[in-house]
Write a structure and sequence with these properties.
single chain
Length: 212
């Protein structure tokens, strides 16, 4: 190896070190698959509970009684169901990222992880509050689209601090959310596609691209 090749090798090493320090590289593709499957199962359970078929319209109307007051059993079920999915998704993401970081001899909680968490949390927190406001005003049909849009914005915002691929997932999530805002009768199907199918596909792609 001549001097020029040694210098190029040193530059590549420095670049690799800087990338590892600036970006969170422990996101797990398998976690994406698990989260997607959890979302699909959650929507399937919701359809069964509400007694709907795949293309039933106006699912959100079942959350209100005839006089326009909230249907508390439905409210309780929906909040419990989606809350459980959120909790299991967070746990899955943390556990799988920890295992990947351990495999790659990386530190899971470093400056890059903190920047990633902050940049993904701000849009998610704002979106969660807005969804609760919509729930308070009984605009239930718009909750599914809003969560997709804000989730997509969170991914786009956080993509600077991890693998670039999640930026494309975020853009698609925003588009799916906007479509769900137009076809509100099928919000649950759009939600299943955005949080379910897209996560499964994304997880498989990330696994094959970075973890094989």
């Amino acid at each position: 190896m001549n001097k020029q090749e040694e210098q190029l090798e040193a530059i590549r090493d420095i670049r690799s070190i800087m990338e590892k320090s600036a970006r969170f590289l422990s996101l797990s593709g398998l976690a994406g698959v698990i989260i997607g499957l959890l979302a699909i199962i959650s929507i399937a359970v919701t359809y069964c509970y509400l007694g709907l078929n795949l293309f039933s319209k106006g699912y959100y109307q079942l959350a209100l009684l005839g006089d326009g007051t909230p249907n508390l059993p439905v409210y309780t079920f929906l909040l419990s169901n989606f809350g459980l999915v959120l909790l299991l998704s967070i746990i899955s993401g943390i556990v799988m990222s920890f295992l990947k970081a351990k495999k790659l001899n990386l530190t899971i909680w470093d400056a890059a992880a903190k920047r990633l968490l902050i940049n993904i949390a701000i849009p998610l927190f704002a979106g969660g509050l807005y969804a609760l406001i919509l729930l308070y005003h009984q605009h239930i049909a718009l909750i599914a689209p809003v969560t997709l849009i804000f989730y997509g914005l969170a991914l786009i915002n956080a993509s600077r601090y991890t693998i670039n691929d999640i930026r494309y997932l975020g853009i698609i999530e925003v588009v799916v959310g906007l479509l769900a805002s137009i076809f509100i009768d099928y919000g649950l199907l759009f939600w299943a596609f955005g949080f379910g199918i897209l996560h499964v596909v994304y997880g498989i792609v990330i696994y094959l691209k970075y973890e094989q």
